[in-house]
């Protein structure tokens, strides 16, 4: 399968717990993006990696959020001390060096904080 | 401030007829635009793109039109098929930013009636 893979698909956690999501992009794609989507809204940009370098972070990404992409391959998004407002679909996307062809999104991780 | 707006939350069209989905934007720096389709429980799927140097781009049954002076783009689907029933998002980016970070609209739910 050459698509973008995200794990887990669903995560239910108690408020205050830490969670980590993983994204495996298409292997030849050097650009990787994290977006968040809440009900009735479009995806909102969180952060962007080019290879292993995190080049941009949205102000939506509070100090409780951290993302990594070691060795420019897979990426992880960690949320510490989760809050109910963190409940959303977290989408990962990757693209080749010329992203005018559009991103390829994964199926997302749906986080529910109870 | 919503920089990309899809003012019609839903649209119903008969099978075989034309579907027209609209999108307006406010930022004159946007110069690259994408349309995505999203089925429930899946990530968005890239459909078609257009850059600001063009006013039309076609791909099979899908055509995107861009009116830069009006800051308006539209997606035409002809003929519409039941499998086209999904949520459609338009997205815009200032490509010169180098990040290709896209701002998404809130989506239009298309229902194609058999």
Describe the protein:
- The complex is a heterodimer of chains A (114) and B (114).
- By secondary structure, chain A is mostly beta strands.
- Chain A contains no helices and eleven strands.
- Chain A has strands at 5-7, 10-13, 19-24, 31-37, 44-50, 53-57, 65-68, 75-79, 88-95, 104-105, 109-113.
- In chain A, strands 2, 4, 5, 6, 9, 10 and 11 form a seven-stranded mixed β-sheet that branches. In chain A, strands 1-3-8-7 form a four-stranded antiparallel β-sheet, with no helix packed on it.
- Chain A is globular and about 40 Å long.
- The mean pLDDT of chain A is 92.
- Chain B has strands at residues 4-5, 10-14, 19-25, 32-38, 45-51, 56-59, 62-67, 72-77, 86-93, 103-104, 108-113.
- The model of chain B has no long low-confidence stretch (mean pLDDT 93).
- Chain B is built from no helices and eleven strands.
- In chain B, a hairpin with a 2-residue loop joins strand 6 (56-59) and strand 7 (62-67).
- Chain B is globular and about 40 Å long.
- Chain B is an all-beta fold and 114 residues long.
- In chain B, strands 2, 4, 5, 9, 10 and 11 form a six-stranded mixed β-sheet that branches. Chain B has a five-stranded antiparallel β-sheet with strand order 1-3-8-7-6, with no helix packed on it.
What proportion strand of chain A? Answer: over 45%
Overall shape of chain B: it is: globular
Q: Between the first and last Cα atoms of chain A, what is the distance in angstroms? A: 33 Å
- Unreliable stretches of chain B: none
Major beta sheet summary of chain B = 6 strands, mixed
Look at the helices and sheets of chain B and give the structural class.
Answer: mainly beta
Number of helices of chain B: 0
List keywords for this structure.
heterodimer; A: 114 residues; mainly beta; seven-stranded mixed beta sheet; globular; B: 114 residues; five-stranded antiparallel beta sheet
Secondary-structure topology with pairs:
The complex is a heterodimer of chains A (114) and B (114).
Chain A: E1 5-7, E2 10-13, E3 19-24, E4 31-37, E5 44-50, E6 53-57, E7 65-68, E8 75-79, E9 88-95, E10 104-105, E11 109-113
Chain B: E1 4-5, E2 10-14, E3 19-25, E4 32-38, E5 45-51, E6 56-59, E7 62-67, E8 72-77, E9 86-93, E10 103-104, E11 108-113
Parallel strand pairs in B: 2-11
Antiparallel strand pairs in B: 1-3, 3-8, 4-5, 4-9, 6-7, 7-8, 9-10, 9-11
């Amino acid at each position: 399968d050459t698509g973008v893979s995200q794990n887990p698909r669903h995560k239910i956690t108690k408020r205050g717990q830490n969670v980590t999501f993983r994204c495996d992009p298409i292997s030849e794609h050097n650009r990787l993006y994290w977006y968040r989507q809440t009900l009735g809204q479009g995806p909102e940009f969180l952060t962007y990696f080019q290879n292993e370098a995190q080049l941009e972070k949205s102000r939506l990404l509070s100090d409780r959020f951290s993302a990594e992409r070691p060795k420019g391959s897979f990426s992880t998004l960690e949320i510490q001390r989760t809050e109910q407002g963190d409940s959303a679909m977290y989408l990962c996307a990757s693209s080749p060096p010329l992203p005018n062809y559009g991103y390829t999104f994964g199926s997302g991780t749906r986080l529910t904080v109870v | 401030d919503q920089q990309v707006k899809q003012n019609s939350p839903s649209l119903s069209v008969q099978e075989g007829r034309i579907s027209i989905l609209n999108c307006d934007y406010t930022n004159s720096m946007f110069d690259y635009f994408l349309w995505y389709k999203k089925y429930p429980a899946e990530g968005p799927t890239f459909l078609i793109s257009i850059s600001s140097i063009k006013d039309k781009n076609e791909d099979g049954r899908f055509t995107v039109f861009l009116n830069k002076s009006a800051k308006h783009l539209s997606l035409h689907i002809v003929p519409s098929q039941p499998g086209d029933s999904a949520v459609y998002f338009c997205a815009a980016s200032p490509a010169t930013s180098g990040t290709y970070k896209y701002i998404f609209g809130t989506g239009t739910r298309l229902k194609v009636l058999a």
